[in-house]
From TrEMBL:
GO cellular component, one term: plasma membrane
Residue ranges the record marks as coiled coil: none
Family label: Belongs to the drug/metabolite transporter (DMT) superfamily. Small multidrug resistance (SMR) (TC 2.A.7.1) family. Gdx/SugE subfamily.
Membrane topology: Multi-pass membrane protein
Descriptive protein name: Guanidinium exporter
Keywords: Cell membrane, Membrane, Transmembrane, Transmembrane helix, Transport
Entry's localization field: Cell membrane
Species of origin: Lampropedia puyangensis
Membrane-spanning ranges: 33-50, 57-79, 85-102
Record's keyword annotation contains Nucleotide-binding: no
Length: 105
């Protein structure tokens, strides 16, 4: 159950990061409310996951899911730059997430 909570916490991190971009510095109401709601839900699920997962593992995987998800959203939905160096950085983040998960089994 902790891993499922952590997964959804990471997915909500992608939601709030994306909504924050669309809030234009919290000057638009709807994206600002989505940002705050998704943040609260993400933190709550992270806290739930941390009841049984190690801090370093949970936090690293949570931020990794958010980072990779925001990276993909930026490329797909916002037309951000795709370069070999950025792809390599994303691959290294995913490798770190996988190693962190394997080390906690």
């Amino acid at each position: 159950m902790a891993w499922v909570a952590l997964l959804f916490a990471g997915l909500l991190e992608i939601v709030w990061a994306t909504a924050m971009k669309y809030s234009h510095g919290f000057t638009r109401l709807t994206p600002s409310l989505i940002t705050l709601g998704a943040m609260l839900a993400s933190f709550a699920l992270l806290a739930l996951a941390m009841r049984s997962l190690p801090l370093g593992t949970a936090y690293t995987i949570w931020t990794g899911i958010g980072a990779i998800g925001a990276f993909v959203v930026g490329i797909v939905a916002m037309g951000e730059l795709v370069s070999p160096m950025r792809i390599l950085a994303a691959v290294l983040i995913v490798a770190g997430i996988v190693l962190m998960k394997l080390s906690s089994s």
